[in-house]
Structure formats: structure tokens, C-alpha cells
Design goal:
With 355 residues, this protein is of the alpha/beta class. The chain has eleven helices and ten strands. The structure holds adenosine-5'-triphosphate and fe (iii) ion (FE).
């Protein structure tokens, strides 16, 4: 079973070809064209610019993905496209293109929830069995999900304000560091003293798996301003210590909330207990180490797919398409683009599947 996948819900235009054969799943190609440079001057993703860039680039991404896979459209078994959630202009670009390709080739078309794409990735990379626990932690998302089945995800909790990636990016900005902030802050933190500034660990006193990261940014801003007021500026070492303190706080919150999410998950008596991460923040070594420790203590396997599959890509969309197609859940003619589409509402509103 071979699927073409198309992704355009945020600021990456992507296309990929994935095959499920007897030996398991194989990524035949995965093209990702980022737009960091296009949005750099605006301090964030500009929806109109993103939509236009997707419209201009997606065709080429698809051509390259097929060429690298050594296949023509006639040789794939189906097409999967991200139909939400995300910036509606970009999602529409992908959906329109996919509909055109499907109509022209007569291939089945499957609409995929972007978050489900992330959440199903550990099955693409490691053939993980349901149910497993998923921590999605990126620039736009932060949530715990139990993946029970291809289209059944149970949300245990998540951030009530900023996502951790966003907090890393804002921290970098406050300290005059480059974007995206995550890798830079991690590098600075490695040279800093995490014990010098004690930042808050929000919501740890509250039960459940919800998190909050916006207060951290305020605390960091206050610490920075106090240093500036005291001596007129911050030194290189101050900056490293601030980064280290910030990162330690994020890692501690994620580790503790993961411990609680694992307890809820283990109540389901999974046969092969596992925690998988997705999202760019999962690249962070300190955060990963915290999660690994918690998993080891709970006797749960910890799994982090390679970073290029943790961040936005189309291989995960092609794979989710294969999974849905195999399960008999398809989107036929009237697939629609959705700006909002919570994962735990996935099973209910599949439009056009008739199944
Ligand atoms: P989403 O896909 O959820 O809409 P996104 O596209 O912003 O959001 P990703 O591409 O998965 O998310 O990840 C990007 C985020 O990951 C950025 O906020 C970036 O700062 C963060 N990040 C990347 N590397 C690291 C790191 N080493 N430590 C912490 N954060 C990191
Ligand atoms: Fe994403």
C-alpha cells in the first residue's frame, strides 16, 4: 500500500510518499520546504504569506516527492492530505491540490487531522502497538493523548496558555537570541547554572495533567529587568543562567505532568506500555532526559522518533492516510478544510466517509 501525503497547515509545504509493505513501513521520500525566511521580518507566521507560498510550492513538492520515490501518481494507491487544524488558507491550498490530483487520477483521497499525523508517527517509525501515551510538545501544541486506535485519541490534559516551544521562542526574544529560540536557548542553558534563578513550576500544585507556561515568561522578564536595573545590563553569563533556569523549569513541569499522565495511561493496562513524543521541543536534551527518567521509573518504554519526523512533515500524513484507509475510514468527495479540529473529536465528524 503506497500513499502520497500532502501537508500545508502551518509554515512548511511538504509532500511525501510512504509505503507499507510486508517488511513494515518505509518512507520512500519526504520533501519539506520551510518558510522561516519568508516570515522572519514579521515575528511570526503571516497567514496570507503562508497561504500564497503553499499555493506556489506544493505542486513542486509533490513532483519532487514522486520523483524521489521513483513513482508516478498512477502508481500510488491513494492520496492523503492534512484537512485541519491549521491556518485555513494553507490547509485549503493542500486540500484543493489533493482533490485535483485525486479527481484526475481516480485515486482515493483521505483527509487527515494534522495532530493525528503527529500522534500516529511512532507506528510509522517503530510499529508501536495501541494503546500508547503520546506527548505532543511543539511551538503550537502541548498535550497528552492516549492513542487507543487509528481514530480514537483520549486527551488527558495540556497547556492552558502558551506551548513550550512558544515559551522557548519568547525567552530567546527577551534575551536577544536568534529564532527559533529552542535550540539557541538549549545551547546557552548548557553553559549556565540552573540553580541561580528559581523560576516557578506552574500548576504543579494542581491535580491532573494541565500545564501553563506563560507565567514563566513573565518571571524571566522580571529577572532580566531586575538585573538591568541593578547593573545596567545583563552579561553573557547572566543570560546563560537565565536560560538554564528557564529550561529547568519547563523540563520539571513536563516530567512531573508526564508522571501523572503515565499513571492514568497505565490504568488501561497496555500490553506494551510506551510513551512517544512528537513536536520540535522533543529535541531538547534536558526535557528528554527528564521524560526518560520518569518512564524508566514507571517501567514504560520511551520513544522519540527522529527530529525530522517529530516536526511538521508529510510522511506522517501519508502514513496516517494509510492507517485510515486500512481501517476503512476514508474521506470521499466532500472532504472539507477545518481551521479547528480537536483530536478527541476525531471519530465523530468524518464527513463523506459514510462508514
Ligand atoms: P505545530 O506544528 O504544533 O503547529 P510548530 O510548527 O511551531 O508547531 P515544531 O515545528 O514541531 O512546531 O517545533 C518548533 C518549535 O520547537 C519551536 O518553538 C522551537 O523553538 C522548538 N524547539 C526546537 N528545538 C528545540 C530545542 N532543542 N529545545 C526546545 N525547543 C525546541
Ligand atoms: Fe505540527
Amino acid at each position: 500500500l503506497t500513499f502520497l501525503g500532502i501537508e500545508s497547515s502551518c509554515d512548511d509545504s511538504a509532500a511525501a510518499v510512504v509505503r507499507l509493505g510486508e517488511g513494515g513501513a518505509e518512507i520512500l521520500s519526504s520533501i519539506v520546504e520551510g518558510q522561516v525566511a519568508l516570515h522572519a521580518d514579521f515575528g511570526g507566521v503571516v497567514p496570507e504569506i503562508a497561504a500564497r507560498a503553499h499555493a506556489e510550492r506544493l505542486d513542486g513538492c509533490v513532483e519532487r516527492a514522486l520523483a524521489e520515490a521513483g513513482l508516478t501518481l498512477a502508481e500510488v494507491d491513494g492520496i492523503a492530505v492534512t484537512s485541519g487544524p491549521g491556518l485555513i488558507g494553507g490547509v485549503l491550498s493542500g486540500v484543493m491540490l489533493a482533490k485535483g490530483l485525486a479527481a484526475g487520477s481516480g485515486k482515493p483521497l483521505v483527509g487527515v487531522n494534522h495532530l493525528a499525523g503527529h500522534a500516529l508517527t511512532p507506528r510509522l517509525t517503530d510499529g508501536l502497538a495501541f494503546p500508547y501515551l503520546m506527548l505532543l510538545v511543539s511551538g503550537g501544541h502541548c498535550q497528552f493523548l492516549i492513542a487507543h486506535d487509528v481514530d480514537r485519541f483520549e486527551r488527558l490534559g495540556g497547556t492552558i496558555d502558551d506551548a513550550p516551544g512558544e515559551a522557548f521562542d519568547k525567552t530567546a526574544k527577551l534575551l536577544g537570541l536568534a529564532q527559533p529560540g529552542g535550540p539557541v536557548v538549549e545551547r546557552e542553558a548548557a553553559l549556565g547554572d540552573a540553580g541561580r534563578f528559581r523560576f516557578p513550576r506552574p500548576l504543579l500544585d494542581r491535580e491532573g495533567c494541565d500545564m501553563s507556561f506563560s507565567g514563566l515568561k513573565t518571571a524571566l522578564l522580571r529577572a532580566r529587568d531586575a538585573l538591568v536595573a541593578e547593573k545596567g545590563g545583563i552579561t553573557v553569563q547572566d543570560r546563560r543562567d537565565l536560560c538554564a533556569g528557564f529550561q529547568a523549569a519547563v523540563a520539571a513541569v513536563l516530567a512531573e505532568k508526564t508522571r501523572r499522565a503515565l499513571a492514568v495511561y497505565l490504568d488501561h493496562s497496555p500490553a506494551e506500555p510506551a510513551l512517544a513524543v512528537a513536536g520540535g521541543v522533543a529535541a531538547n536534551g534536558a526535557i528528554r532526559a527528564g521524560l526518560e527518567t520518569v518512564c524508566a521509573a514507571a517501567g514504560v518504554r520511551f520513544l522519540a522518533p527522529p527530529l525530522r519526523l517529530c516536526t511538521d512533515n508529510a510522511a506522517m500524513i501519508a502514513w496516517a492516510g494509510i492507517e485510515r484507509y486500512r481501517a476503512g475510514i476514508g474521506d470521499e468527495g466532500d472532504l472539507v478544510a477545518r481551521p479547528r479540529w480537536p483530536l478527541d473529536a476525531l471519530a465523530a465528524p468524518m464527513i463523506g466517509s459514510g462508514k
